[in-house]
Amino acid sequence: MYSDEILLDSDFCNMFSDLNTQDTKIDVDELYRKIINQIGKKPCIHKYIVESELLSNNYIKEKIKNHEIRVIDYNEIIKDDDDKLYYKTLFHEYYKFLYETDCLNNKINPKITEKEFSGDVFTSRKAGVNLGEIHSLITSFFLGIPIFLSNDNGAKELADKKINTSTNINVLVISGFDFLTKYEDIFSRQERKAILSLHKTWKERWKKQKEQKTGIQ
Which of 51, 65, 159, 165 has the CA that lies 20 to 30 A from 57? Predict the structure, then answer.
């Protein structure tokens, strides 16, 4: 069952929500179907992402409502206290890895950002921090879901350097050069331009937010 599924990250989902509200002159539904059909697996998403990171994403919520995307709840992942403890252990480990990676890449200010995660692993939210990718990669590891669709290189780095020593999770970064090149024949010129343009806008927005909140330039 799980080997036939693919996990969706919030950044991937929000890409379609943003494109759907812009005058890009592309069929957003068609673009979504192209990507999902090309990969050939059934889309699913972690409950945490739906409840914490897609609050205003009506585009994806509608697909969930129409059973086009399956939501994975915690009780499907965690069967007993040992599973719960292991889940929490992995979460703290992966959070620390992303923190240290972001420090090295000068994306955050270590003086004001927590190195160790505090709060409830299953419900806490942190402004400007994509905790959903951690939940998703743990879910992929637990259930054996082989592909994670993201728009975040941090998730790919976490999988490649930390998780894939014991398993094999393929993180596909939609706006990445490798993905757009590998599947270039399925995208129109306008679609590629819209994806890259949106990703550029996101990067500029993240950079501005980082400078405002941390003073790092």
Answer: 159
